[in-house]
């Protein structure tokens, strides 16, 4: 029985997708729920799996082709798996080389392997059904330098033959097309700078009170809630309280209209191998520190595995990004349209500070608030950032709502 393999149904905000990787070839036996193809959209990678046991008959959309919602990608024939293993059994010796050249890899693993010029057949697979995982590629790359000295003599004999083709000393370049996600990030960042009157205000916060509170209760917190107490939950709660006090910072622009939101949906930027994604924490006013930490942890893990749903990254009234995890001391974050503001956290750096006429070494963090000056006045932006500073430097205010 022939079955049409179709692209997933895209949400209204996603116009189309791109065929990223075919994991099966025509004529290859496939088991039910086995991954057939990855479809990359502007936000996530969607997986299309086999509807039943059978064989992929022919592919209608090749890798790199643009596809619409529910468009037919291939034709699948159900119930023909039994014939394929018999053919393989009759010629086992011939089957092995073919399998080596057709290694199953996850999208993340394939990307890392291609960027580092590693042959898929050289990587030891530990995933299900012989699949090469991202961890397999990383482990292979870590161990590669140890094997390099043994291979060096073989390479030394080759330059004489290859010298006329690749002259010694040439600088190598590699041209790689942008992924859909990277192209979307680029377009949105340029639009944000072109279409908004973006301005950034800075302040600094003494992190010692939060660090002392965290050090005192982190073990008990993890024991009770089953999740580690980080810094991001404090910033989310402080931002939520500040957004309630300054509604313009929690607003968005829709044409000539200013939309004021009566709720706080805060996006937390997460860096992945494919690019930056911003999953949304919904109704943060009703979330406790433990719920915020566990939700962020879940989002971060699934973002890096490409498992976030599109609905989990749509909307949002305010965004927090943390360049401090990579060592950034100060930066200017770019707006996430149609939001009117974004806050950047940075590295905690010990610095000498004047406290009551005395020089004291304190763990300080620079905060940056980029905002759309068309909607937010400088006074509101500065007061918003000062409110966050005050709440973090005296965390009891978060509990007392003062």
TrEMBL record:
Domain of life: Bacteria
InterPro entries: 2-oxoA_DH_lipoyl-BS, 2-oxoacid_dehydrogenase, 2-oxoacid_DH_actylTfrase, Biotin_lipoyl, CAT-like_dom_sf, E3-bd_dom_sf, PSBD, Single_hybrid_motif
Short name of any one Pfam family annotated for the protein: 2-oxoacid_dh
Domain Lipoyl-binding: 2-77
Cofactor field: (R)-lipoate
Record's keyword terms, sorted: Acyltransferase, Lipoyl, Transferase, Tricarboxylic acid cycle
Annotated ranges, domain Peripheral subunit-binding (PSBD): 104-141
GO MF terms, alphabetically ordered: dihydrolipoyllysine-residue succinyltransferase activity
Classification via CDD domains: lipoyl_domain
Recorded metabolic or biological pathway in which this protein acts: Amino-acid degradation; L-lysine degradation via saccharopine pathway; glutaryl-CoA from L-lysine: step 6/6
Residues making up the signal peptide according to the UniProt record: none
UniProt catalytic activity: N(6)-[(R)-dihydrolipoyl]-L-lysyl-[protein] + succinyl-CoA = N(6)-[(R)-S(8)-succinyldihydrolipoyl]-L-lysyl-[protein] + CoA
Entry similarity comment: Belongs to the 2-oxoacid dehydrogenase family.
Free-text function comment from the UniProt entry: E2 component of the 2-oxoglutarate dehydrogenase (OGDH) complex which catalyzes the second step in the conversion of 2-oxoglutarate to succinyl-CoA and CO(2).
Protein name: Dihydrolipoyllysine-residue succinyltransferase component of 2-oxoglutarate dehydrogenase complex
Species of the source: Thalassolituus hydrocarboniclasticus
Organism phylogeny: Bacteria, Pseudomonadati, Pseudomonadota, Gammaproteobacteria, Oceanospirillales
